[in-house]
Amino acid sequence: MLTYDQVQLFDRDGYVLVPDVFTPQEIEILVANVGGARTKKHEGNMPDAAGRSSKLSLWADIGDDVFGAVSASPRVVNNARILLREEVYHWHSKVMLKEPRVGGAWEWHQDYGYWYGDGCLYPRMISCMIALDAATRENGCLKVIPGSHLLGRFDHGRVGQQAGADQERVAAVAERLGVVYCEAPAGSALFFHGNTFHASEANLSDRPRRAYICCYNAFSNVPYGGHGHGRPEPIAVAPDDAILRFTTASEPTTAAR
């Protein structure tokens, strides 16, 4: 569980980095499944402004597989509830793949910048990024603008093949608030608010930079008009040792919790 001080940091900065949320054994199991059937089925490419490959696999259900065990993990779900101060449901989850030397950047954006278009009236949304590899500046770790969640939502357009905010306006924000590179060892979890500006640079190193991101929406923020991701239903929180039940690459199912 997050400490009081960590919750205070999240409220102030719009993000909090928590070390050692998942063990080396759990991370090893997750990495072994990154190239499995689920990620291959949903894999897509969203090139950055320079045309470099930015790959991700995204799905909206909590499947009966190792990734579902993470999306329903009490270490993730309960902290999301704490930070949003209310019950949440699963919005979507995704694997981010930054391959050595060729993995592209992700341009500055707010997640709510485009989730707004799904019919969510409030930015009561949160993401948890779990580092599957050590994240460093060299391999394109996430960078954030602290306190930017308090600015409100910016208009978003296209930057390359990605959704991005007005880059001139973001530069002005970064000049005033600064930029923090969220370097973190594997197993760390970065919780960040739906309005927090974040981006990442290209992976110019010889090591991959893979991450799993679980996203949640507050029940008070169910999209109007039937849009959005996920189903607004309570999450059946998984046992704390659920990941350890998958020791080899697992085959996902469409069953949702």
Automatic annotation (TrEMBL):
Q: Name one GO molecular function term.
A: iron ion binding
The UniProt keywords, alphabetically, are: Dioxygenase, Oxidoreductase
Q: Which cofactor does it need?
A: Fe(2+)
Q: Which InterPro entries match?
A: Phytyl_CoA_dOase-like
Q: Which domain of life is it from?
A: Bacteria
The reply on keyword DNA damage is no
Name by which UniProt lists this protein: Phytanoyl-CoA dioxygenase family protein
What organism does this protein naturally occur in?
A: Horticoccus luteus
